[in-house]
Amino acid sequence: MDSLVLYAVVLAVLAAFLWHVARQDEFFRVSIRKGRVLVIRGRIPAGYLADLRDVGRHVERGTVRAVKDSGGALLVLSASIDGVTAQRMRNSFSLYPVVKLRAAPPLAHPNIGQVLGIEWLAWRLAPPIE
């Protein structure tokens, strides 16, 4: 019985480690639902977040991620974001070099979903629309 508990603990630690390593290449992850933008994890320059709020106001549902790419950054968008909107997001993103992405401030008051990077929980705990 003790070995079963040990295996479960080792498996849980390994899963947490792999989960952490898989997210190391991300600068930020933003979710858009019904035109509302929510930072799920990472640091995002305030100017680009404002641009996403402007450009994404007509997006029903989507995800925007900035990932590390051979010394630079690459914007990865979900397929649910139409081509014109995606291009506007990429154009705006090109104004922010990696230095600005790394220097972006952390979220001021993240909820537990944002701390853990769990999208559904972050949305559930997000403040209501004013």
Automatic annotation (TrEMBL):
<dbReference type="InterPro" id="IPR022090">
    <property type="entry name" value="DUF3634"/>
</dbReference>
<dbReference type="Pfam" id="PF12321">
    <property type="entry name" value="DUF3634"/>
</dbReference>
<protein>
    <submittedName>
        <fullName>DUF3634 family protein</fullName>
    </submittedName>
</protein>
